Structure formats: structure tokens, C-alpha cells
Amino acid sequence: MGLLANLSVKPLLWANGLQLAAIAALGVALWAQGVWWEGKVADVGADRDHWKVVAEARGVRVDELSAANFAFESVNGTLRRLLDEARGEAARLGEEGREAVAAARAAEADATRTLDVWMARYADQVRIGDCASAWRAVQAHCPAMEGY
Asked: Where are the domains of the chain?
């Protein structure tokens, strides 16, 4: 091999050797990066499985809470209806109570007027001699009538 071979082939061989070393280093780097990414894929798969379980649990919890919310709304509606009925009943009873008190006061006023009339008649008739003696006779035979 001559000078021309030394000047062209050897540098090309060295360049090819350097390229081969660079390709080998790049292959090792890519292999290491592939192993690293496979680990990441496994981690992501585990995370996916974890979050899938969490999502299913949340779905079950959402179903439970939805059922509880429906039950609450049902009970709340019933309680509101019962409260409205009780308020209506309380208003009705209050009105009946006011009417009963007014009727009792009217009856009391009527009884007081009747008593006043009776007492006035009694006072007038006690002054009459026949009535006074009759009253004394009643008191003598019926001690419970004393003091009237």
C-alpha cells in the first residue's frame, strides 16, 4: 500500500472505527433509555391500575351518596309536608282557641249579667217582709243555705 492508501484508507478506517464506537455508545445509551422507559411504563401501568380502582371506588361512593341524597330529599319532602300540615293544624287550633276564649268570655259576661240581675232581685225581695220570713224559714230547714 502506498502513500495514497495511507492518506485515504487509514483515515477512513479511523473514521469508521470512531463511527462504530459512537454507534455502539449510542446503542448502549438507547438500550439504557429503553430500560428506563420500560420502568416508567410499568409505573404508569401501576398508577393507571391504582387510579382505576380509585375511580371505581369513587363511583361506588358516588352511587352511595346519590342514594343517600335521594333518601334525604324524600325524607325532607315528607318532613316539609308534615311541617306544613302541623302549621296549618296549629293555625286552625289557634283560631278555635281564640273562638273558644271569646265564647267563654261572652258566656262569663252573660252569667255576670244574670247574676247581677238575680242579686238585685234578691236584694229587693229580701226587703219585702214575706220574702224575708220565707228566706229565714228556708235557712232554718236547710243549713246549707245560710249566708246567702
From this structure: 50-143
